[in-house]
Amino acid sequence: MDKIALTAGVLYVIVLLRAGGTFAVGWLAGAGARRSKFAGRISSAKFRRAERAIQRWGAPVVAVSFLTVGFQTAANFLAGSMRMPLPRYLPALFGGGAAWALIYATAGIGVLEVLGKLFAERTALGVSAVAVLLLAVCGVVVYRRRRAALSSGDTAAEES
């Protein structure tokens, strides 16, 4: 249990720094955009309505984003760039970050222990498991890149 608590604590500090930093960068980017040539575009009524909605209702989205893969950074950046008030953002950051740290600590330690046992008791099976895992990750990356290339090719074909 001590391993999980220590791992979760370290991961919690990491996620607070990373997500909080992303929020701060978004806040600065939003402030810079409001002073740039885009200021006219982002001061429209639609944009202000969207900004107010995110400021008011974005905290649950930020909290849930920690349970997703790939959406977390965008949610935190958007919350910062849309100036979500800190009293709404911080509870979402603390709660979502805690959930993320606990999930990754327990699942991560479990996977590492299973792989450790496999390597210790049946090395060939352990190597095979890691190879299958790496092939699966590579397959997903290739599939997503091809799908993205095809969809951007369709967009280019529609434009011409």
Search tags:
single chain; 160 residues; mainly alpha; 5 helices; 0% strand; flat
What do the pLDDT scores average to?
A: 85
Quaternary structure annotation: single chain
Distance between the termini: 60 Å
Find the count of extended strands (DSSP E, 2+ residues). 0
The structure class reads mainly alpha
**Helix-strand sequence:** HHHHH
Largest sheet: none
Q: Figure out the total of helices.
A: 5
Unreliable runs: none
Please state the CA-atom Rg, rounded to the nearest Å: 21 Å
Instruction: Give the CA-based shape.
Output: flat
Relative helix content:
over 70%
The amount of beta strand, in percent, is: under 5%
Report on this structure.
- It is a single chain.
- The chain has 160 residues and is mostly helical.
- It has 5 helices and no strands.
- It has helices at residues 2-34, 45-65, 72-81, 86-121, 123-159.
- The relative contact order is 0.11.
Gist of the model:
The protein has five helices and no strands. With 160 residues, the chain is mainly alpha-helical. α1 packs across α4 (86-121) and α4 (86-121) crosses α5 (123-159).
Layout of secondary structure:
Blueprint: H1 2-34, H2 45-65, H3 72-81, H4 86-121, H5 123-159
Helix pairs in contact: 1-3, 1-4, 2-3, 2-4, 4-5
